[in-house]
Design brief:
This protein is α+β, with helices and mostly antiparallel strands. It has 5 domains: 68 residues, DNA Methylphosphotriester Repair Domain, CATH 3.40.10; 101 residues, Homeodomain-like (Arc Repressor Mutant, subunit A, Orthogonal Bundle), CATH 1.10.10.60; 81 residues, TATA-Binding Protein; 69 residues, no CATH class; 99 residues, Hypothetical protein, domain 2 (Endonuclease III, domain 1). It has 20 helices and 9 strands. The strands form 2 sheets. It has a 5-stranded antiparallel sheet with strand order 5-9-8-7-6. It has a 4-stranded mixed sheet with strand order 3-1-2-4. Helix 13 crosses helix 17. The chain is globular, with a radius of gyration of 23 Å. The chain starts with 9 loop residues before the first helix and ends with a helix. One of its GO terms (molecular function) is sequence-specific DNA binding.
Length: 454
């Protein structure tokens, strides 16, 4: 394939599509020149001849080339691509920010400043890696997200336009027709919405050990904020001034259905992106487990273990501070006391930096030095919430363990090997080939697999 940053060759794509190999779903797309349609490699339609197809790593590239999405296999519902893994970090971050809506209400200049680069260099990165401008990529992403909502929710077309980042229904309709060669009403007309609650289906690749996720969350759940049952997880959330809720029950193979409620539908993209990160839906688990098994063949005792995240780095930081040098049970006891004391009329969200910064924390039953650390951390996050997590090390009372925990659960970084953890240390005595160097870049997964042997 034209893009040098992927290991997929044209022959790889040909073999995968001919076999309709689900391991490649979302990793590339098949565009059919004779029909003008692009599909997932698992599409059940008749297989076109090789001379009549071309391959793209990303949905946006296929749209930009003039192809429209297949209504049968629905590329909008494919797992997220790993196409940008290993590409320049600045470009990866730009893609992530755009998918979170960075260009919806801000300019390209604003995005460039957040990235610490010039507008010109940002445009150059997108042209180099994906063959289009940042704004063109944003529009393509918004349209595919909107298409998914048209299929799977009972939201009005107006709400979908706002949720996908368009300022008006007219602008949304025009962009939809121009790029997807369809009217939104055509998709909605063919969708049965009877008795449907608002939900969105999030695709993922490979196995997902849901029981492991639930067990992990159950042990660390916050009363009133989170609820974990034998089959489901749900919690209240806050996105800026928007309050909401989401619930997930027994994901089917390859699909996690998320029911949701939001005060402000313009925050739906943020919710979706956060849930994808929180439940680690974009990881290629089989690839990760294969590489870890090469290091230690008996390490993988349970297939499908993913990183169980929390809602934000801020929340992960608070959890880590309260968990310093105490048991999980003791830490969650203090966390429950914190949330319930700051919200005496009922817990509706995780406490904000402002709320903790302004609070007298004398009610917490822990050393004064730890209370002061929590206050300093809250003061810092009021002004510097977007700063890199590693900057927290400058704060008194915060060390590498706290930062690594926040990177692991608050940012879902794949390479946090907690080799100073007691359980991991014990596992490393059995699995002697496990080191920070050998498990890279999958240290986080090695950590959770070590814990699974406890």
């Amino acid at each position: 394939m034209e893009n040098g940053f992927t290991s997929l060759t044209q022959n790889d794509c040909h073999i995968a599509r001919m076999a309709r190999d689900r391991r490649f779903d979302g990793r590339f797309y098949v565009a059919v020149k004779t029909t003008g349609i692009f599909c997932r490699p698992i599409c059940p339609a008749n297989l076109p001849k090789e001379e009549n197809v071309e391959y793209f790593l990303d949905k946006a590239q296929a749209l930009q080339a003039g192809y429209r999405p297949c209504l049968r296999c629905r590329p909008d519902s494919a797992p997220s691509s790993w196409a940008w893994k290993g590409v320049e970090a600045t470009f990866q971050r730009a893609v992530n920010l755009i998918e979170q809506g960075a260009l919806t209400h801000s300019s390209l200049t604003d995005l460039s400043e957040r990235l610490g680069i010039s507008d010109r260099y940002l445009r150059k990165l997108f042209t180099q890696h994906i063959g289009m401008s940042p704004k063109q990529y944003a529009i393509c992403y918004q349209l595919m997200f909107a298409k998914q909502l048209l299929h799977t929710t009972k939201l009005t077309i107006t709400d979908i336009a706002l949720a996908s980042g368009f300022n008006s229904v007219r602008r949304f309709n025009d962009a939809f027709k121009q790029t997807l060669k369809l009217a939104p009403s055509q998709i909605r007309k063919d969708t049965n919405l009877d008795n449907r609650v608002n939900h969105v289906d999030l695709a993922f690749r490979g196995p997902l050990d849901w029981q492991h996720m639930l067990d992990f969350y159950q042990l660390r759940s916050i009363e009133g904020l989170e609820q974990v049952t034998p089959e489901s997880y749900q919690r209240y959330i806050r996105i800026e001034d928007c309050r909401g809720w989401f619930a997930i029950s027994n994901p089917k193979p390859g699909v996690m259905r998320v029911e949701f409620k939001l005060d402000d539908m313009t925050k739906l993209r943020t919710l979706v992106n956060q849930v994808r990160r929180m439940f680690d839906l974009d990881s290629d688990v089989l690839q990760i487990e294969s590489q870890l098994s090469e290091i230690e063949p008996d390490l993988i005792m349970r297939s499908g273990i993913r990183i169980p995240g929390v809602w934000s780095p801020w929340e992960a930081g608070v959890r880590a501070i309260l968990g310093q040098q105490v048991s999980i049970k003791a830490a969650i006891g203090q966390l429950n006391l914190l949330t319930q004391t700051l919200q005496p009329n009922g817990v509706t969200h995780f406490p904000t930096p402002q709320e903790i910064s302004q609070a007298d924390l004398a009610f917490l039953k822990m050393p004064q030095s730890r209370k002061e650390t929590l206050s300093r951390f809250a003061d810092y996050m009021v002004e510097h919430s977007d700063d890199p997590v590693d900057n927290w090390l400058d704060l008194k009372g915060i060390g590498p363990w706290t930062v690594n925990y926040a990177r692991l659960r608050g940012k879902s970084e794949p390479n946090c090997f907690l080799d100073s953890d007691l359980v991991v240390k014990k596992a490393c005595q059995k699995f002697t080939h496990l080191t920070t160097e050998t498990v890279s870049p999958w240290g986080s997964y090695a950590t959770f697999h070590c814990w699974s042997h406890a």
